[in-house]
Amino acid sequence: MPEPTTQKPLPPGMVLGPDGKPCRACASGAMFRNWKPTIATKEQARNQKSQVGTSAVAAVAASSVGPLPPLHNQTNCPPRSEELGRATWTFLHTTAAYYPDRPTPTQRANVLSLIRALPLLYPCSHCADDFGEDVKLNAPDVSGRAGLSRWLCDRHNEVNRKLGKAAFDCSKTDERWKDGPAD
Ligand code: FAD
User: Fold this and answer.
1) What mean pLDDT is predicted for residues 64-80?
2) Which of 34, 63, 92 is the last residue of a domain?
3) Considering only CA atoms, which residue is closest to atom 30 of ligand 1?
4) Does the interface predicted TM-score (ipTM) exceed 0.95?
5) Which of 72, 150, 159, 168 to mutate to test the pocket of ligand 1 (most atoms within 8 A of CB)?
């Protein structure tokens, strides 16, 4: 008898992450707006996990049918520094939020390469230089999800501080970048 984990069948197109939970970063916004987590069994979670490896793209596409919500860049203009920054932080924090608790040596090496590439490739050059200096002083913690999320939060807060912005509460990174607010 499968053990119940939530309370309503998963809708078609919902994609589960490797942790067996609905993956917000894998599903369209429309999917999440129309769905409240209620029932799924562990067996369904296992079945859907295999979908991640085979037809996740089709699943996301299927869930995206219908009018799309507006994106912040409506004009199709090249991004300005703020927009580029916001999009990059979104990518980095979301990547950290979905990083494994126990990464393999290859996963650690890959995330280190990503971080080390930023000072070389990030298109805002003074931002890239400052970030590179900060990374030299503060070695990336790639030991696992919690450590990486915290390290990135601290790096982002360093930029916030430099720009005179309020610090973000790093105990809220999962809520902001993975789980959403508690209902
Ligand atoms: P952002 O700072 O982009 O943040 C986006 C969202 O992230 C926020 O709305 C909030 O919900 C969340 N958030 C905020 N702080 C944290 C945190 N500490 N941890 C987790 N989540 C958080 N701009 C410059 O003018 N000068 C620079 O030197 C510079 N360096 C940058 C270096 C890097 C690597 C990057 C990616 C961006 C840099 N930027 C820099 C851009 C700058 O950080 C902002 O992205 C930009 O000013 C837009 O700010 P924002 O207020 O929209 O929110």
Assistant:
1) 66
2) 63
3) 127
4) yes
5) 159
- Tens-digit pLDDT profile for residues 91-136: 999 999 999 999 999 999 999 999 999 999 999 999 999 999 999 9
Whether 178 contacts 24, CB under 8 Å = yes
Residues 105 and 26 occupy one common structural domain: no
> Contact 47/10 with Cβ under 8 angstroms?
no
Name the most confidently modeled range: 8-22, 34-48, 159-173.
159-173
Q: Are 87 and 53 in the same domain?
A: no
Domain that holds residue 22: 4-63
Q: What pLDDT sits at residue 152? A: 98
Q: Are 85 and 59 within one domain?
A: no
Closest CA to 152 of 164, 165, 134: 134
Whether residues 114 and 175 fall in one domain: yes
Using alpha carbons, select from 174, 136, 133 the residue that is nearest to residue 153: 174
| 4 pLDDT higher than 60 | no
The CA distance from 85 to 73, in Å, is 13
* Cβ–Cβ < 8 Å for 163, 147: no
Of 83, 130, 156, which is best to mutate to test ligand 1, by the most ligand atoms within 8 angstroms of its C-beta? Answer: 156
pLDDT of residue 47: 55
Cα of 47 vs centre of ligand 1, distance in Å, is 38
